[in-house]
Amino acid sequence: MFSRKQRDVSGTTLPPIAIVGGGLGGLVLARILQIKNIDVALYERDQTRDARDQGGSLDIHADSGQVALREAGLEAQFRSVVRPGGQDLRVLDKTGVVYLDEVEGEGEMGRPELLQLVGRGSMFALADNKGFLTHVTADGRIHVYVAFRVAEDWLSTSGIPFEKPAEARAEILAHFTDWSPGLTALVRECGDPIFPRRLYLLPIEHRWQPRSGITLLGDAAHLMSPFAGEGANLAMLDAAELALALAETGDVDEAIRRYEAPMFERAHAMARESKANMELCISVDGARRLADLMASFRQQNGTP
Ligand SMILES: Cc1cc2nc3c(=O)[nH]c(=O)nc-3n(C[C@H](O)[C@H](O)[C@H](O)COP(=O)(O)OP(=O)(O)OC[C@H]3O[C@@H](n4cnc5c(N)ncnc54)[C@H](O)[C@@H]3O)c2cc1C
């Protein structure tokens, strides 16, 4: 986010704001600035909204993502699309033994045989430093992630032809020969393209000195692994707090100072959690360790 030359906007001396990147963070920032009558332009690299696959599921947390949606005036729309059962969590090991099956409330799902394996929300099947992770999308598809702990250049050295999904599936499954056929069916019976991805994270204590007229938010500020389920929530909360600071102070540099200090603090805490969760999940006995972690959360919260 950066600003150009100062000029009067809506009775303040705020300059027009430029936002680079129309992800969750950029869009929430733009939306709240518009509500506050602050001049804003958003630049997005993707040419169209369908340039990349859409429709993943996100857990939008009450103390972060939902706060941002409220500030953006989108709470009612959010409530209207929330999916019952989306927060369900199942944890299995490689034999298919269920270590944890958390079901929240009643909900509908059209495919009972799938419900049996992956549930209605997220499923983690973990063992031997690898795993299958799934979530059910709003339109009823199952997103399947295959996770490996391998060297950074493995995608190019493994020889797996990711551009040929049928061959790639066979080679991926060769890494799971001693896993339950019920679980490997998630890959075997999937007819979709495969997108190889590395997971990167910024150093946990990453920070910078305030710079006049420019700052970062969301992944650009604190990229972390998805294992705390916080990246999208933090991006939206960053955006809301920055937008409100701009509107309240009417001064870009003062707003940046006000925004950055608490942003670093919460991002560092979440980055630590996310890294610890990733180490725990992608480990020799990830299922047992994740189930134990969830049980300790329940104990802390006093839930049965
Ligand atoms: C597999 C996976 C699962 C995840 N699951 C969860 C989850 O369950 N819960 C959760 O909270 N988070 C999750 N995350 C993290 C979440 O997706 C990110 O933290 C979130 O998208 C960050 O939002 P952002 O706006 O900062 O960045 P992005 O969403 O990455 O948006 C950045 C935008 O900037 C654009 N851009 C990039 N460069 C330029 C440029 N030079 N010029 C113009 N535009 C540019 C990009 O095209 C993109 O649209 C997951 C991430 C992954 C990879």
Structure description:
By secondary structure, the chain is an alpha/beta fold. The protein has two domains: 2-81 and 201-277, FAD/NAD(P)-binding domain (3-Layer(bba) Sandwich), CATH 3.50.50; 89-149 and 153-197 and 282-301, no CATH class. It is built from eleven helices and eight strands. The protein has helices at residues 24-35, 65-71, 75-81, 112-118, 154-157, 165-173, 181-188, 219-222, 231-249, 252-281, 286-301; strands at 2-3, 17-20, 40-43, 89-92, 98-102, 122-127, 130-136, 142-148. The strands form two sheets. A five-stranded mixed beta sheet has the order 5-4-6-7-8, with helices on both faces. Strand 7 (130-136) and strand 8 (142-148) form a beta hairpin. The chain is globular, with a radius of gyration of 21 Å. The N and C termini lie far apart (45 Å). The chain binds flavin-adenine dinucleotide. Residues 20-26, 43-46, 58-59, 218-220, 226, 229-233, 235 line the site of flavin-adenine dinucleotide.
